[in-house]
Amino acid sequence: MWVNPEEVLLAGALWMTERANPYFVLQKRKGHGDGGGGLAGLLVGTLDVVLDSSARVAPYRILYQTPDSLVYWTIAHGSSRKEITEHWEWLEQNLLQTLSIFENENDITTFVKGKIQGIIAEYNKNHDIKEDDDTDKFKEAIAKFRKLFGMPDEEKLVNYYSCSYWKGKVPRQGWLYLSINHLCFYSYLLGKEAKLVVRWADITQLEKNVTLLLPDMIRVSTRCSEHVFSVFLNISETFKLMEQLANIAMRQLLDNKGFEQDRSLPKLKKKSPKKVSALKRDLDARAKSERYRALFRLPKDEKLDGHTDCTLWTPFNKMHILGQMFVSTNYICFTSKEETVCSLIIPLREVTIVEKADSSSVLPSPLSISTKNRMTFLFANLKDRDFLVQRISDFLQQTTSKMYFEREITGSLNSSDDEVRAKEFLKEQGWKNHFAEYGQGVCMYRTEKTKDLVLKGIPENMRGELWLLFSGAINEMATHPGYYEDLVEKSMGKYNLATEEIERDLHRSLPEHPAFQNEMGIAALRRVLTAYAFRNPSIGYCQAMNIVTSVLLLYAKEEEAFWLLVALCERMLPDYYNTRVVGALVDQGVFEELAHEYVPQLYDCMQDLGVISTISLSWFLTLFLSVMPFESAVVVVDCFFYEGIKVIFQLALSVLDANIHKLLNCKDDGEAMTVLGRYLDSVTNKDSTLPPIPHLHSLLTDDGDPHPEVDIFKLICSSYEKFGSIRADVIEQMRFKQRLRVIQSIEDNTKRNVVRTIVTETAFSIDELEDLYILFKAEHLASCYWGGTSNPTDRHDPSLPYLEQYRMDLEQFKGLFTLLFPWACGSHSDSLALRLFRLLDQNADALINFREFINGLSVLCHGDLTEKLKLLYKMHVLPGKHLLPQLFYSVYLALLYNAVKKMHTPDYRTYLRLWNQETKTKPENMKDLPKMNQGQFIELCKTLYNMFSEDPNEQELYHATATVTSLLLEMGEVGKLFCSPSSKDEVEHEDEEEEQAHIRASRCQVPNGQFHRRSQQDPFYSSVEESQTKLSDIGGAEPLSCTAPMEDIKLEDSSPKDTGTSSAMLISDDETKDDTSMSSYSVLSAGSHELDEKLQCEDIAEDTVLVRSTGSQGGERLPGGGAPLNRGGLPHSASIDKDWAITFEQFLASVLTEQALVLYFEKPVEVAARITNAKNVRKLGHPYIGISG
């Protein structure tokens, strides 16, 4: 390809000149091509890999040089000699003579450079190539990546790093390529090449380890292999990117959310030397935005625009606090360098004034921001204040004013207990004083004092507003006015699986609380849960959501409770409430890790008893609401909304720690659960102003003494003292590790269930089924990666039964058909795959599941001769218009049922009985198969000829196929002689309305005088009798479907041995003239050769025909010098003969007459070899996918 001219200082170093003229030089890289260049070539190849030289991709180049200059310019490079030669010839033909006209060397150089740049620009314009953000250096890496690993253009490279890969005990220095869907490694050292391709979706563990031998090491594990990489220049950056890409893969397995590049990022300067891709910058920006949103509890679509160091003046302690300012589309946030000192969130919707204050030595570059609630924030020490103000101004212009107004947080008491009222009053006063000093609402300063107030308990009447504030739900509610009302209106009266589950659980939601003992409370709970199910169908409804939501409704208004539920399900407890509670399982794994670290003496005991997995789900899913007295559990919810999930982990560890001695003495899980249940039941909140609410959680099964009371506030304080060192970023790191394990365990469980379900239905072994499932799933993932003809969400739905979770469309099926199915051969594979796919797709949704896929493959690999031939026959008869899809047939029956039900005739019960019989599954019989018409028969013939094109016994199979074809053609023609015109009409009607193909017409009768009975001496009689005897000997198949009185009428022997007469000559000319109701066969014999042309196909040699030939017509021979076949033996017609048809019995009987065909279809299939080959093809850079291990 032509490249922008680049200067080269040493033209001869490591390159060999192959062609030269006064202005241009064509060179080849040493060590490339035949011979390899000996030791020097090996060294050069090794250097190219280690030093990341582009010569590994483009080993040919063309240099430009003026005769009197020592400076060379690269103007083209190529990956092959053919490509570079084309460029060389173009230069010789178009530029050499022109250059000789110039007198000045500078003019020549300017002209050549301008010409090359013009060619590149024209090429980009013609091929619609748009400029991207990637640097030239990175584009070289992309080209190298695609060439080395055979990846398609759709596979996007993110970044690449120099490192060592430990292959056995030997490190191989090379390059690690990280793309969106794959981890790849390439090394070339002294002639030895090492390649590795691992799909992110196959990774089960990703660890950064430190050992004595390898201080920096990354270990990548899959289900069946382990890979170790070391000697990184920047291991932290590499590992973070690997984590991010593995997370994207897990997300895709979980809910089909693939990666979509963000095109809104600012562009790099074109000459930027940094080898960074636009994708890498995109992923870095995503990671920063995720941390930003988690830190300040912002909506999940908020994107960080930038951050800068600064100071913030805090009026409550009269200090300038050092920290960072974060600016995004809708928020300005600040956090101090010391985490607990101060944090601040300023929504731009609240901002009224942004102005630059006067700088001074004490306060350099200050920036003042004022809000609607009359608070002013003063930032200083801003490095690029003017740019920052401009960005904030731009975002303010995009911010629309909202109708939501924060209501003032006030308190009111309703308890009759004076002591409790006094405590509640003090709490309220403490919060009011805090608001006065630190501000109120979303813009207040959040400090260590705020946290202390939360830990002491939020006053009952302030709880709802403060939950909204601390969870960030207030921001989403403020920016979506009217959203909840619209959702309630849209979901009203709609019914689905989620609404059914909601109705079932409504009366189980805090039934002990008075608020949910009447229809008003139940109706509000129903509206909130139903609205959320319609907002987020991927979650819909999950048990435990009803308990949490009912508590939210006790302290917040209905709309506020809805947005609190949104914050809980989508941000604070991610993936907790989906169909497989993945998030809760992930945090269960995190809890086990924390227990192992913080209570090691108890960990082994708990693991043996299996208690941790039992308790953690119920504790985490309901935030202790289902296992602790209500008035105590809401204090846990207070802390959760302020601090996040770390509070739940801390509290759970505290409960274990408090019962450590009792748990160590437990002998089984029941006893351990009793100990923990008793302890949690005893947790009390003496400051609660609520009337006592009976607690329904009862794990107590003995009559022992109740556990002493445990104060909830002391328990929480104890959890902070002992386990407060747990950090949010450490939890996220643990979550990543556990997410890999949990999702891969779910995938393995799905595979085991699928295999267990169908292993009894097929002859495949369990190992073979598991390998086939992996290939089936890999094909689905490949289409997710690089696009497909259908939506990935349609093909993968985790909420469906195991067999239905992964499905594939036609394009994916074609890929596996070519690799696994024994009939796939040559260019006809796609058309045959289409026929088989349509046959297997029983519900006509253009997708097949794993069971349907295995059913088809099982017949071809393990079926007997009859089953294989039946499948081949059905592939050409059933797909298309010839049978309505089962789905539409069911609809037809349902409509028939409804219509008949309305009839007031005495016979309607008879129709209903018929309908009921039709809906029952019946075993398939040979005679139930529809007849094959002439067009379908032609396609079947094409398939047979193509199927044998690469077989070792190709010639014998062609001979046999020609014989069977001739026999079947004549059977079809003779069969027409015994069907009345009315019966022919019935056949045509069946072709048009195949949904009633199972209803057979009455048996055919031959009208008097239509046919003349032959005498025993008639040649037709004698030859057909011989053939009939032959057919009956091989299986007694019935050659004709009509059952007229025709005991003495037989079929002609149509084997190639008899070349004397064709079937066209069976009826004399005199008989034809006299018979007014002659068959169309006699007339069509004199027609065109169009039918012959229809029977031809590209894979059949020109000298191949399908039926016999008479010597007088100069017949053509079969390949290999077979007997001549008669073109006249075929019915010639300008159109398909609608009356012609054969049955499956006739097809089977005809095939059984030829030993070559019988041997072909009975030949055993090496299933294991085909599966191994398919896996190897995928591993070695097949254009679809690469699979590791």
Word description of this protein:
This protein is an alpha+beta fold and 1189 residues long. Helix content is 48%, strand content 12%. It contains 45 helices and 25 strands. A seven-stranded antiparallel beta sheet has the order 9-8-7-6-12-11-10. Strands 16-15-14-13-19-18-17 form a seven-stranded antiparallel beta sheet. A five-stranded antiparallel beta sheet has the order 1-5-4-3-2, covered by helices on one side. Strand 15 (331-336) and strand 16 (343-347) form a beta hairpin. Helix 26 (728-758) crosses helix 27 (766-786) and helix 27 packs parallel to helix 45. The longest helix is centred in the middle third of the chain and has 31 residues, at 728-758. It is globular and about 105 Å long. The two termini are 36 Å apart. Mean pLDDT is 76; it is low at 268-273, 412-416, 696-702, 880-909, 982-1134 and 1181-1189. Residues 1017-1031 have a biased composition (Polar residues). One of its GO terms (biological process) is system process. GO terms for molecular function: calcium ion binding; GTPase activator activity. May act as a GTPase-activating protein for Rab family protein(s). InterPro entries: EF-hand-dom_pair, EF_hand_dom, GRAM, PH-like_dom_sf, Rab-GAP-TBC_dom, Rab-GAP_TBC_sf, TCB1D9/TCB1D9B_PH-GRAM1, TCB1D9/TCB1D9B_PH-GRAM2.
- In spatial order, strands of the major sheet run 9-8-7-6-12-11-10
How far is it from the N-terminal to the C-terminal residue, by CA? 36 Å
Instruction: Report the principal-axis shape.
Output: globular
Oligomer kind: single chain
Parts with pLDDT < 50 across at least 5 consecutive residues: 268-273, 412-416, 696-702, 880-909, 982-1134, 1181-1189
Number of helices: 45
> Rg to the nearest angstrom?
40 Å
Sheet with the most strands? 7 strands, antiparallel
Question: Level of helix content?
Answer: 40-55%
Number of strands: 25
Structural class: alpha+beta
Q: Average pLDDT, to the nearest integer?
A: 76
Q: Determine the strand fraction and express it as a percent band.
A: 5-15%
